[in-house]
UniProtKB/TrEMBL annotation:
Protein name: UPF0276 protein AVW16_00280
Family indicated by similarity: Belongs to the UPF0276 family.
NCBIfam families to which the protein is assigned, alphabetical: PRK05409.1
SUPFAM superfamilies from the UniProt entry: Xylose isomerase-like
Protein source organism: Crenobacter luteus
Length: 272
């Protein structure tokens, strides 16, 4: 059993801001880090343990690839379990993506086909990972730039059925949903209606870029106005949820992330 993340806003903590957060302890609801950055232990892990004593912690994985046909790598799972045991996070999440096959890995978060066969495989992977970790996982919806012609269901229906079968939760990335609405004409209202409200354990907000009319989930800018508007729609549907500001490229001063988190906190307060 672990504590839950508070229904407040936090930030994705990246290396340029480690020292400032350690020294200044800014007012934040919680922090999230990429799990794989701390697999090797040492000074980074000691720092993370220190921060975990000050803030609720979320571990967000980018490498497990639970949406692959092949099962999750046993060594990766073991290293993630060791990190969970060392830091006792309030939440652990993974992208619902395809990233490996036949022992070969792609350095990307690739979309998977939403078919009955894929659902059976992924449900087994999620159950295996949750058993290994001894806890519930939150799975994140992806930003996509193509849809498989063989899809038999939508992403939200796929996620909802995974929740039903495995007891996992959902990390709802609002920026990804907006990107898919623009790029793939996803019906946002239907997407949100398909997700079980009690499964939403975390929300992500980030900034996108635009190239030749295509929106790219770059995490390189402030949260855009239409994403804030969609976030308010999400909160109206699900109520307050722990919300993260993500920024991974062209990272600004810490004060910029704290200000974005404060804006998210104001949105959360408005629906309490």
């Amino acid at each position: 059993m672990t504590a839950s993340l508070p229904s407040r806003a936090g930030i994705g903590l990246r290396a340029p801001h480690y020292r400032a957060v350690l020294d200044d302890s800014p007012e934040l609801g919680w922090i999230e880090v990429h799990s794989e950055n701390f697999f090797d232990g040492g000074a980074p892990l000691v720092m993370l343990q220190t921060l975990a004593e000050r803030y609720p912690l979320s571990l967000h994985g980018v490498g497990l690839g639970l949406g692959s046909f092949d099962p999750p790598d046993a060594e990766h799972l073991a290293r993630l379990k060791a990190l969970v045991d060392a830091t006792r996070p309030a939440a652990v999440s993974e992208h619902l993506c395809l990233n490996h096959a036949g022992g070969r890995y792609a350095n990307d978060l690739l979309p998977l086909p939403y078919t009955a066969a894929m659902l059976d495989a992924v449900a087994g992977h999620v159950a295996r990972a949750q058993d290994a970790l001894g806890r519930r996982l939150l799975l994140e919806n992806l930003s996509s730039y193509l849809a498989y012609p063989a899809n038999e269901m939508g992403e939200a229906d796929f996620l909802a059925e995974l929740v039903r079968r495995t007891g996992c939760g959902v990390l709802l990335d609002v920026n990804n949903l907006y990107v898919n609405q623009r790029n793939l004409h996803v019906d946002v209202a239907a997407f949100l209606a398909a997700l079980p409200a009690d499964a939403i354990g975390e929300i992500h907000l980030a900034g996108f870029s635009e190239r030749d009319g295509l929106l790219i989930d770059t995490h390189s800018q402030p949260v855009h106005a239409p994403v804030w508007a969609l976030y308010e729609q999400v909160l109206a549907r699900f109520g307050p949820r722990p919300t993260l500001i993500e920024w991974d490229i062209d990272i600004p001063p810490l004060s910029t992330l704290v200000a974005e988190a404060a804006r998210a906190d104001a949105c959360l307060e408005a629906v309490r």
